[in-house]
């Protein structure tokens, strides 16, 4: 992978998070960027739904998302697959949205106008 391709992936993921979650995310930041041949990784942290700190992790086209539980512990948001590829970002973010919202009280989501339920 060329360096420009790695930069493009980082920016594409950043834009996709903003596009998919909109006003449900705040304070997005890149960190733990490793820009070495055959080991390109990065993390994007953000405050989701005014409720959780969430970390998106990219490592050689494998992606994961986790919720911070405090004390350096994270809960991996999973679905049918352990890892996703960046080629499946829409599916990944939709699954992650469902998993995050399951862990937030419905009354809170509804009060913020973020409830998908009737």
* Secondary structure: helix percent: 25-40%
Q: What's the quaternary structure here?
A: single chain
Main sheet strand line-up: 1-2-3-4-5
Distance between the terminal alpha carbons, to the nearest Å?
A: 45 Å
Question: What can you see in these coordinates?
Answer:
With 118 residues, the protein is α+β, with helices and mostly antiparallel strands. It has one domain (3-108). 34% of the residues lie in helices and 37% in strands. It has three helices and five strands; from the N terminus they run αβββββαα. It has helices at 3-21, 89-102, 106-112, and strands spanning 25-36, 39-48, 52-59, 62-70, 73-77. It has a five-stranded antiparallel β-sheet, with helices on one face. Helix 1 (3-21) crosses helix 2 (89-102). It starts with a helix and ends in a 6-residue tail after the last helix. The model has no long low-confidence stretch (mean pLDDT 85).
Keywords:
3 helices; alpha+beta; 5 strands
Brief synopsis:
With 118 residues, this protein is an alpha+beta fold.
Provide the fold topology.
Elements (H helix, E strand, L loop, with lengths): L2 H19 L3 E12 L2 E10 L3 E8 L2 E9 L2 E5 L11 H14 L3 H7 L6
Antiparallel strand pairs: 1-2, 2-3, 3-4, 4-5
Helix pairs in contact: 1-2
């Amino acid at each position: 992978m060329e360096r420009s391709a790695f930069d493009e992936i980082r920016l594409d993921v950043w834009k996709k998070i903003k596009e998919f979650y909109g006003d449900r995310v705040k304070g997005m930041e890149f960190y733990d960027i490793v820009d070495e041949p055959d080991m390109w990784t990065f993390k994007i942290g953000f405050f989701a739904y005014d409720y959780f700190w969430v970390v998106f992790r990219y490592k050689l086209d494998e992606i994961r998302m986790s919720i911070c539980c405090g004390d350096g512990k994270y809960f991996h948001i999973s679905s049918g697959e352990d890892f996703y590829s960046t080629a499946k970002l829409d599916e990944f973010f939709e699954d992650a949205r469902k998993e995050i919202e399951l862990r937030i009280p419905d009354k809170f989501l509804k009060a913020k106008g973020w409830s998908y339920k009737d």
